[in-house]
Amino acid sequence: MVTVDEAGRRTTHRTLKINLSNEAALQAFSQYALGYNAELQSVKIDDAETIHADGTHVVADLQSAVFDRAAPVTVSAPQFSEEHLRIVAFPALTKGDTVLLSYSITDINTLFPGKFTDLAVYPLTSDFRDASVTLDTPADMPVNIDAPGMQAQQDTVQGGRHVRVYRYHTASSGPVPQQANTLTWTDVGPYFVATNFRDYAEIAQAYHVRSGEQDEPSAAVQALADSLTKGVNDRREQASRLYDWVSRNVRYVGVYIGAGGVVPRSADIILSGRYGDCKDHATLFAALLKAKHIESHSVLVNLGDGYRLPNAPDWMAFNHAITWLPEFKVFADTTAGFAPFGTLTFEASDKPVLDTTTGAILHTPPQNDANSSSSVDYALNINNDGDANVTAHAELSGQASIGPRRTFSRLSRSRIEYEMLSRSGLTGSLHATPTDPGELETPFTLSLSGKLDQLAIMPGPAAFSVPRMPTFDSIQSFSELVLRRMNSPLDGICGGTRLREHYVVEIPGNAKILAIPSGISMDSGEISYHSSYRQRDNTVEIDRLLERRLTSNVCSGAKLAEWAGIAGAISKDLKRQVLYK
User: Fold this and answer.
1) I need a surface site. Which of 93, 376, 572, 573 has the fewest CB within 10 A?
2) How far is 314 from 120, CA to CA, in rounded Å?
3) CA 92, CA 99: separation in Å to the nearest integer?
4) β-bridge pairing 251-252 and 275-276
5) pLDDT one-digit tens code per residue, 116-141
6) Distance CA 343, CA 348 (A)
7) Cα gap 200→202, rounded to integer Å
8) What CATH number belongs to 203-363?
9) By C-alpha distance, which of 403, 572, 383, 369 is closest to 471?
């Protein structure tokens, strides 16, 4: 039950009964973590019990079985993240038991004055025998509700209070099987969202009011902006230089004081300390741009698996702040650290975003072959013992370059080399030489050299196909994704990087190539694949190109099924063998 007072403060009373019918449920719910805002909310555990199958109850000692800790904060942590976890451990559990938990969360204050939002989700992969939400608000408080898949059972006004009841239970067909890589549950429903925000534009206005004028450039900010753009007249290049400086020089650190979840610090303070969270990054970047008279807007986005907004305006749908530069029609996120100017991470792409200056809903571009590409050239020289000397050169652009840049800046070279071999299922030795990961203006390139064990059987007669080679993405992974997930009941995530793989394979001079495969060429509209095989003496040259002209990062099971033909053809093509003796 959710009770809201005239100031928008909520008191949420919740009782959960969960039957642990299998080992997975036992592992998942042997302890229960409640997320709450430590600055703005208090939590009270009313009851925690284990109910055995024979009906006996074991009551948890709330002094020793309840723990509290801060939620982890990383570069991808939510913007509104003074989050703590109150963890309840249930006693004497075995499979078949039921856990009972009753607790209350009370708002001490609201993030936005007078405003509340309440959210409950009901994953389709869980079996809800009976779930209900009772919302009790002041009768004169306008409330927006979005509850797809739920049934409204009561709507009454009495004694100055407005009470609404919604219920949900899993369909008689049972829960949907667990599915990897699915969207967040508010994207696929059922869920319950209630709020007294009128629309998303009002959320934008509320955020803008709280964030204030923190992006006014001080003398120090002005001096830095002038220094970074000295001699540069092109305005986009000026913006790019300012972006690069913030990306490289301002560390991501969660800083939360009072309402700090939505109130950034001043640009001057951020510049002095050279650290801050996402809204601080956006504020300093905005101040530097303002110093050069370049317009920018802070926009809110979901940096996760949420690609759709509920019909009721839900500020919790946004958990990250980035920058929109309308003059160049470019989104920028300096917290990404290794994203070239004008390129977002995959997690921020193809998302609805809320412009806090105008109140408009904008949309970030999806990942596709226009903004993400990988091109790799391999040379494999197979020895008489079947091992192969390998050299390779990879060029990664746009989104495809962000992960490798970050990896090479944070991990040791030896660990990266080991993991590249391990992911490929190969053994041997590998040496990687990257360009500077921080040089964001140019594509990220990587040279590889080493020796791979038993790439072919020597002497023949035998055959070999080129295995998955050490790299950061592969054509093979696309075909596997489609064939494994097609016809899945829930929408999932799919990427659109353009992938080119080129191989030159040489076998020993005392062997003879007998036959090589024929290439294929297929086009299904959004997806095209082309391969070719050419022989010259004891050398085979192989070209493979996968182009994905995707308009969304979201793929339904039906959409993947449409690609099954081309994915199956790719899978077969990657297994085709060169015959030799």
Assistant:
1) 572
2) 12
3) 10
4) parallel
5) 999 999 999 999 999 999 999 999 99
6) 10
7) 5
8) 3.10.620.30
9) 403
